[in-house]
Amino acid sequence: MSDLMTKFDPWLEDAGPAALVIREHLIPVEGPDGVAFPATYAASEDRTFGGGYNIDLFPDGTNVCLIDSVGSQANRIEPLFAKGEYAALVPRVVVKAGEKCVNLLEAGHRAGDAIIRCSALKQELHDAFKSVQNGDAQPLAKIAPTSLVFGAWDSRDTQAKLPRLIASTIRAFDVHKLTRSAQYVPATEYIDEGLLPDRSDLRDADGNMINVSSKHPYATRGFAHHPASGSHGGVIATGGIRRVATLHLAALRLLNAGEDAKKTLALRRYILGLALTAFTYSPSGYLRQGCNLVQDPDKKRDFKVVFGDGHHEDAAVTHNEALDYARTAAKAFGVGKDRSVDFDQSLAKQEVSGDAGNGTKKVQKAGTKKNK
Questions:
Q1: How far apart are CA 340 and CA 121, in angstroms?
Q2: Listed residue (22, 63, 3, 7) closest to 280, CA to CA
Q3: Which of 144-158, 226-240, 255-269 shows the highest mean pLDDT?
Q4: Would you say 183 and 238 are in contact if contact means Cβ atoms under 8 Å apart?
Q5: Is the pLDDT at 366 greater than 70, yes or no?
Q6: pTM tops 0.90, yes or no
Q7: Helix crossing, 261-280 with 319-333: angle to 10°?
Q8: Which pLDDT score, from 0 to 100, does residue 191 have?
Q9: Which residues, 6 or more positions from 370, have their beta carbon under 8 angstroms from its beta carbon?
Q10: What is d(CA 116, CA 213) in angstroms, rounded to the nearest whole number?
């Protein structure tokens, strides 16, 4: 057996480290005092959160602003396994829905997503999730191994919950929130030029043209003056911006292949290879319009192995080393076969009507074809 295959086995032992942690200090491309645009969120149903930026305030006057959530970071990293040399590490599972083909790696809820569940894979995934609950993650690793890396919740069927092995979040500290305003001016005066009918709600009492609400029918189509005032203008992070990523080795060691120790080790090596490859990959710092982040050249990037007793050591795993290990572990485990299936409208109708079943023969008949 090669040294590469056994290189990280100490991390897979019960007495192994708790996690790997990366801490990166980031700045906007404009500089430390540049403006960054965080993600915006809708208001909560109970209105305790009014919508907009997610900024937590503390009694001492400090605050923390969420720049990119753990879910968003996962969605940026996971599609890596659909590209180039990484694609050979996982099975390619694609669902054709109408004119669109959706790779499992692009589905928001991964193996628990509706588009996968409403396909010929429904029964197989149901059985795989049940198998995880019964202590054997091999079947799911053959269909959707990245669901074991980035987590999944089969909330509409078996209720199986797979913890995230990788969690990455970007936060800004002690931010000053900015606003911005704009004035839309149409290309020509459509009313004065006689190009559109005049309306009383476009003029003041003296007959002068006025700014109108963005909901006005002329404004919605770009024919009238209207302002956009006090909208989100980004933040300036006086306390810095930091990305913290964690690979939970303790959680990875909970994965088993039943009672078979040899198969369990092969499974854990495979999932560790995928996790290390994703963990050491540097995702693009371009998160959205107005938020392009890069490494702070004046602050060191930390990469640590953290042990159960709290002490930590420097880690020295490069992305190329992780990829080489992943290839070796994938070959030994045996990557699952590629699959291409159609979205099943009848299953979707059953889901909507509440008659989806729970892996019963009725659902199997609707969602799969048995070999004759």
A1: 10
A2: 22
A3: 255-269
A4: no
A5: no
A6: no
A7: 150
A8: 87
A9: none
A10: 43
